[in-house]
């Protein structure tokens, strides 16, 4: 149980843009769909619904600001010129002892640690692979891709609750590691490379 008494577990999937967070979360969601104790919340983002990528709830910048100030988000941040919010309903799930799995900015890890017991899944790959993956994904312009690669090293992710997964091999091998880390309730630690 966390210091604030919430019995659930908050699994934060973090890492630079293009590292594979959404891909691995999608795979884990499909593999764990039978388990009602594991929740994959839908993020709210100031990005059009048809931009590609995850199934998010699109909000306007004004709506994002209003919802953020009325505490509709348990976690909220801005990155890449966009606003992101994780709905406050995750707090009810954490109170009920569920496991939440969500893609968040590396910048809000400490804030999340004050909400509940946290396990950080820190995904990494070398910058050249990031650039190649972002270009192949095709959602951003060349300028945006360079800005995202530059941001890759903007944060240090550290702590006893961090599990590092190097996603430079097959998606399947990284997914197996991610699913293990979501399911195992003991605090796993260390680095796995595939
Ligand atoms: N192990 C892998 N091998 C090859 N390609 C991969 C691997 N993991 C992810 N990819 C590909 O890399 C691209 C980026 O992955 P994804 O969109 O999941 O990254 P992300 O971390 O969620 O990025 P962002 O933060 O920008 O949303 C996708 O096209 C995905 O298919
Ligand atoms: O660099 P940091 O702050 O860790 O990550 C910032 C954001 O980058 C990605 O955004 P997107 O889904 O590509 O728009 C992640 O989802 C995260 O919200």
From TrEMBL:
The gene is phnN. Its EC number is 2.7.4.23. InterPro entries: GK/Ca_channel_bsu, P-loop_NTPase, PhnN. It catalyses: alpha-D-ribose 1,5-bisphosphate + ATP = 5-phospho-alpha-D-ribose 1-diphosphate + ADP. GO terms for biological process: 5-phosphoribose 1-diphosphate biosynthetic process; organic phosphonate metabolic process. ATP binds at residues 15-22. This is Ribose 1,5-bisphosphate phosphokinase PhnN. HAMAP family: PhnN. Catalyzes the phosphorylation of ribose 1,5-bisphosphate to 5-phospho-D-ribosyl alpha-1-diphosphate (PRPP). Residues 7-186 form the Guanylate kinase/L-type calcium channel beta subunit domain. One of its GO terms (molecular function) is ribose 1,5-bisphosphate phosphokinase activity. Pfam families: AAA_33.
